[in-house]
Amino acid sequence: MLKTNTSTDYKGQVMIDEKMVVYLSASIDKDQGVSTSPSISIREPELYQKNKKTCREGIQEFLKELWALEDKD
């Protein structure tokens, strides 16, 4: 028996000086309305270390927007 589901990908990047420092992604399962395994990948560790506050603010903004999508009916 085949069982399928529909999901929406949600992606973001935290940029510093036009370089992607942090890549963010998540999938939202349309059937259950929740995100599955949000992922945070630091692509430029040196820039991340020098800009932690900005990077973390971007990560928090991504998560807030992801949760708003989950809450949307």
Fold blueprint:
Layout: E1 7-16, E2 19-29, E3 34-42, H1 45-50, H2 52-71
Antiparallel strand pairs: 1-2, 2-3
Features:
73 residues; alpha+beta; 3-stranded antiparallel beta sheet; 2 helices
What does this structure look like?
The protein contains two helices and three strands, in the order E-E-E-H-H. The protein is α+β, with helices and mostly antiparallel strands and 73 residues long. The termini are far apart.
Overall pLDDT, averaged? 91
Structural class: alpha+beta
What's the end-to-end separation, in Å? 29 Å
Number of helices: 2
Q: Which strand order does the major sheet show?
A: 1-2-3
How much beta, percentage-wise? 35-45%
Shape: elongated
- Largest beta-sheet characterization: 3 strands, antiparallel
What portion of residues is helical? 25-40%
Q: How would you summarize this macromolecular structure in one to three sentences?
A:
The protein is of the alpha+beta class and 73 residues long.
